[in-house]
C-alpha cells in the first residue's frame, strides 16, 4: 500500500502545472508523506481493527494535499485549477479559512497580488482574510518580515552553492535556491501590491426600497474602481437623520454572492436613511447614500386598512369540511358500509360489484365510453401494466359526450384523493332515483377507487386540463404524477417512454387514431405541461396580463406555455412589496382622466416604480404581440395588489373593457405570438391555488 501511495503521489506531481514549486509546498508534502507512513505503521500494529481509522487518516491526508494544491494554484495564479478545486471540495474539506505556516490564507495571496478573478472565485466560495491582519501596520510588518526572511534564505543558499564543489548535495541546494528565489519574488510582489493599493471607491447603484411594514431593502453594485485591491466586504449603515448622526445600526456583509441587504425590525411610518461603503485590504472607502435617500416602511394595505384576502381561508375550509364529515358519519347511508364491509345489498350497482371482484384489472382497449388513465413518470420512464399498457379503467361505457361541468367536477375531486371512499359513501344515497349527473359522478368515484386499488396508491396526481376525445366516441380523462422516490406500485412496472412508443402496435389508422394512441403520441407534451405547471416564480413584483375568451360552456384564460399556472407576465422588480406611498400614487394615476399623468418627483420610490412600470409595459406588449400605441387604452387594475404568499405579488394590466373577454365568434384584436395556450378558468384557478 505504501508503494501504491508513493506512485499516486508521483502521478499527482506529474499533473501539476509547470513552474517552480515553493519551499512551503515541499514542507507540506513532507508532512503529508510523514502522515501516510504513520498510517501504515499503525495498520501493522492494530491489524484489521484499525482499518476504519486508517481510511479516515488517509482521507484527511488527501484533503491536506488538496489544501496544499489550492495554495499552490493561487500562488501560481492558475484560475482554472482554483475553480476545479473549489468545485471538487467543500470549503471545510479545503480548510479554506485556515492560515498556513506563514499566517496567510489563499484569499490574502490573491488580493495582495491583485488577482481579481481568483479573489472573486474564493469570495464566492466563502473565503475570508487572515485574522492576523488586525491593522494596516500589522499587515505591512508581516509582509516586510516575509520578504526579509526570504531574502536572507536566498543569500544563504547562494553562498552555499557558490562555495561548494559540484555534487548531489549542491544540485539539491540549487533547486532550493530557485524555489526560494521564486518565493522571494512572490512576497515582494505582494508587498508592492499592498503598498500601491488604496481604499476602494464608493459602491454604485445604491437603491433603497420598502420591503414590508417593518423593513427596507438596499441593493448595490461594486465600486467603479477598487484601486488595485479587491473588495472583500461591505458595510450598510442606517439612521433617522440625513447626516447619519446618530447611527441607529450597521451591518457588515462578508458573503458577497448577492449584493443586497434587508434591514429588519424598523418602525412603520418612520423615515430611514441608508448608506453603503466598501472595504479592501487598505480599509473602508467613502460611503454612498442611497437613491432615494430615505424609505418609510409600509405596505399598500395600510392605504385603506384592508385585510389580506386569504387570511384564515384555508383554516375555515378545513373546519367546514370537518363539520360536514361529522354530520355524514351519523348518516343512515353509512350503516351498510360499517356493518358489512365485504358484502353489498342487491341495490348496489353492477360496477361497484365489479370493483371488488378479484378479476378487476386494467383495460387493454377502449370500447366507446368514458375512461380514466393515470400517468406516473420518473425521469424518462413511465409506469405501465405487465401487458405494457398505460393504466386505464372504465368510468362509464354508455357515456359518449363528456359535459364540461362533469369534467370540472372531476378536477375538484382530484384535490381530495384521500377522501374518495368517504365521498363515494355520501353519493350512494338513493341511487335508484338519482339524476344522470349524479350517477355519472358516482361512477367517476368508483373508477378512481378502482385505479387507486389496482396501483396501491391514493394520490393519482394532477388532472390534465382537457380530456382526450377520438372519433370512435372514446373520452379519456388523464391524470399526471411525477415520482421522485423509489416508490413501489402494484400490478405495474417501469419502462422507458421511447421504448413504449416504438413497441406499442396501434390498432387504429393514422387518420382516425384512438384516444390511447393520441395519448401515447402526445405523452411528452403532457409531461412537459405537468412539470411546468408546478414551477414557482422567483420572488418579486410582476406585471400580469388578464385576457379571457368565452365559449358556450366555459371561460378560458390566456397563459404562457412555459408557466401555465400563472397569467402572462413580466417581472417588474425583485422586491414584491408595494409601499403605501407607491400605492397612493397608483390610485392617483388611475383616477386622472388624462392618458399620460404627470411624472412623480425624481429620487422618490414613486418615480422608481413609474420607470419600472414603463419598462415592464413595453416588454409585456412585445411578449403578447400588441402594438405599443394600443397600450394607451389599457388599464392598470387599481383595486388591489394580488399577493401570492410573502414573496410574489402581481399588478394586473387589463385590455379595454370590451376586449377583456372575447365572446364566441368575436374576432380577437390581439393575437399573441406562439408559446401561449388557453386554459379553462376553473382549471387555471386550481393550478394557481396549487
Rg to the nearest angstrom? Answer: 36 Å
Oligomer: single chain
Q: Quick one: biggest sheet?
A: 7 strands, mixed
Distance between the termini: 57 Å
Low-confidence stretches: 1-49, 334-359
Secondary structure elements and pairings:
Elements: H1 2-14, H2 23-46, H3 51-75, H4 79-88, H5 91-94, H6 106-112, H7 116-124, H8 136-163, H9 168-196, E1 204-212, E2 215-221, E3 233-239, E4 249-253, E5 260-263, E6 272-280, E7 283-284, E8 288-295, H10 313-329, H11 335-339, H12 350-355, E9 370-378, E10 381-385, E11 392-396, H13 404-413, H14 420-427, H15 436-455, E12 462-463, E13 468-469, E14 475-482, E15 492-496, H16 497-503, H17 515-521, H18 523-532, E16 540-545, E17 548-550, E18 555-560, E19 568-573, H19 580-591, H20 605-623, E20 635-636, E21 642-644, E22 648-654, E23 661-662, E24 676-680, H21 681-689
Parallel strand pairs: 9-14, 16-22, 17-23
Antiparallel strand pairs: 1-2, 2-5, 3-4, 3-6, 6-7, 6-8, 9-10, 9-11, 10-15, 12-14, 13-14, 16-19, 17-18, 18-24, 20-22, 21-22
Overview of the structural elements:
- By secondary structure, this protein is of the alpha+beta class.
- It folds into 4 domains: 56-196, Serine Threonine Protein Phosphatase 5, Tetratricopeptide repeat (Alpha Horseshoe); 207-298, Immunoglobulins (Immunoglobulin-like, Sandwich); 369-534, Nucleoside Triphosphate Pyrophosphohydrolase (Alpha-Beta Complex); 540-591 and 603-680, no CATH class.
- A hairpin with a 2-residue loop joins strand 1 and strand 2 (215-221).
- Helix 3 (51-75) runs antiparallel to helix 4 (79-88), helix 6 runs antiparallel to helix 7 and helix 8 packs antiparallel against helix 9.
- The two termini are 57 Å apart.
- Residues 1-49 and 334-359 have low confidence and may be disordered.
